[in-house]
Amino acid sequence: MDIRVATFNVENLFARYRFRKRRKTVEANGFGINNLAFDIYDEALKRVTAKAIREVKADVICLQEVENLAVLERFSSTYLPSLKYKYRLLIDSHDPRFIDVAVLSKYPLGNINTHRDERIRNAWLFSRDCLEVDVDVNGTILSLYVNHFKSMMGGRVKTHARRVEQTTRVAALVDQRWQGKNYEGNFIVLGDFNDYDDPNTGLKPLLTHPGLENVVKRIPGGDDAQWTHYYAKGNEYKQLDYLLLSKSLAAANGVQPVIMRMGMPRRAQKYTGPRFPEVGNNDPKASDHAPVYMDLDLV
User: How far apart are CA 105 and CA 89, in angstroms?
Assistant: First the structure.
């Protein structure tokens, strides 16, 4: 195994300023806020989130719903020092809730390309970005396309068109770089896609792409075993989180990915395996998503 890669929607990894702490906000060079004067928001939950990440032990983990780079740095330094994520990446995008995609890695990151400012019909195409990044794994490059597509909030049908636009664009980005190589290479499209695979999905441009494989489908048991998210209001268990491997990378790795549900809330009763002792019926929990990871030999 060369590398363990994971994706995880950490659900609102925010920080808040410590207003009740007395801090000097005026510095010699003008106005500034002490960059140490904030705490991770809802520490009880985020300790469980960190516990899930430590359980996964990924070499590279792509995250969704992180507020900014300062929060990512604080979270990693405070809760994940044993994992030694020396390389940390987040580029602020345009989401109104200030949630972004991010990367934590033990390996150097390079060739970073953001698509945060692409527009369609006078709106941002990717409110949370499609973040392209190359990981240098001891001289072998692994290319990642980190995504968090339009949510189904407001209705799956109503939001369908935007996910189609986003997935069509990501498929085009893959084609631009890899089609001439017959999609042979080390690349993965991954993240929280906010839709599931059925005839009405907005993910067809990616799920039917000739150069990609949804490796979660390798897990036997169908939807009952492949779900990564629990929606309590509709009592729905769906796969919303994806690792789409290039066809050559998938062919070289016949193993199954792992969906790690130990941090899921106890109300998600379909999961009957062990949970972290801190996990409650709703809170605390690691997230409403489960991390997905896979051990890979690069080609």
Answer: 9
Amino acid at 254: G
**Which of 235, 233, 197, 230 has its CA nearest to residue 215?**
197
pTM of the entire structure? 0.94
CA gap 30, 13 in Å, rounded: 30
Q: What domains, with CATH codes, occur in the chain? A: 3-15+36-296 (3.60.10.10)
Give the pLDDT confidence score for residue 23 in this predicted structure: 52
d(CA 2, CA 297): 5
Preceding peptide of 284 cis, ω within 30°: yes
* Confidence bin at 40 (pLDDT 50/70/90): confident
DSSP sequence for 5-49: EEEEEEEEE-EEE-TTS----EETTEE---TTSEEESSHHHHHHH
Summarize pLDDT for 159-193 with one digit per residue, the tens.
999 999 999 999 999 999 999 999 999 999 999 99
The dihedral sign for the CA sequence 246, 249, 252, 254: negative
